[in-house]
Write a structure and sequence with these properties.
With 195 residues, the chain is of the alpha/beta class. It has one domain: Class I glutamine amidotransferase (GATase) domain (Rossmann fold). It contains five helices and twelve strands. The strands form three sheets. It has a seven-stranded mixed sheet with strand order 2-1-3-4-12-11-10. A three-stranded mixed sheet has the order 5-6-9. A two-stranded antiparallel sheet has the order 7-8. It is globular.
Length: 195
């Protein structure tokens, strides 16, 4: 099995380390010629920067075609933003792949100083440590999207509310947080099971 890891910007090396630990062959994706893979991981990083690099590298259209054809994908943090159907508070020229029927808000949990860690209950997986850094908030889930975990969060301008942080639809899995930063591999395993 060959799994691509988008290697334009962000924490892609942590995903490579987890794939190596799972004895999976990671392929660094930097050009359209690298896209001969069975699935794709889109890492955390800066979503607008990754969006611009996807376009300037010529990766955006071929990758969008593969995702529309049913290629499996796993996105963490910025990867969730890029895989979402719609993005709130993104730049006007920011692109997304419309691979999962969710609406996300960039930096929805707040700026860098609002970063936090928590323990999540994840359906079918169990408890998991989660690190949120300028993380997106899932504002809306539609269609056949399954919410695997939510977090109760106190937003400055509203009462506490439950916010989905891991969602799945078909072969697409997304998380608002960074499991790869703590060496957590169970979401990677869940992703690989769908391929």
């Amino acid at each position: 099995m060959k799994i691509g890891v988008l290697a334009l910007q962000g924490d892609y090396l942590n995903h490579v380390a987890i794939l190596n630990k799972l004895s999976v062959n990671p392929v660094l994706i930097r050009t359209p010629d690298d896209l001969d893979v069975d699935g794709m991981i889109i890492p955390g990083g800066e979503s607008t920067t990754i969006s611009l690099l996807l376009q300037s590298s010529g990766l955006y259209l071929p990758l969008r075609g593969l995702l529309n054809s049913g290629m499996a994908a796993f996105g963490t943090c910025a990867g969730m933003i890029l895989l979402a159907k719609s993005v709130i508070d993104g730049r006007p020229d920011q692109v997304s792949f419309d691979a999962i029927d969710i609406v996300v808000r960039r930096n929805g949990f707040g700026r860098q100083v609002a970063s936090f860690e928590t323990e999540l209950a994840v359906s079918g997986v169990g408890p998991m440590k989660a690190v949120f850094i300028r993380a997106p908030v899932v504002e809306k889930v539609s269609g056949e999207v399954e919410v695997l975990s939510s977090v109760n969060y106190s937003f400055p301008d509203s009462a506490d509310r439950q916010v989905p942080v891991i969602c799945r639809s078909g072969k697409v899995l997304v998380s608002s947080f960074h499991p790869e930063l703590v060496g957590e591999d169970r979401l990677h395993r869940l992703f690989l099971e769908r391929i």
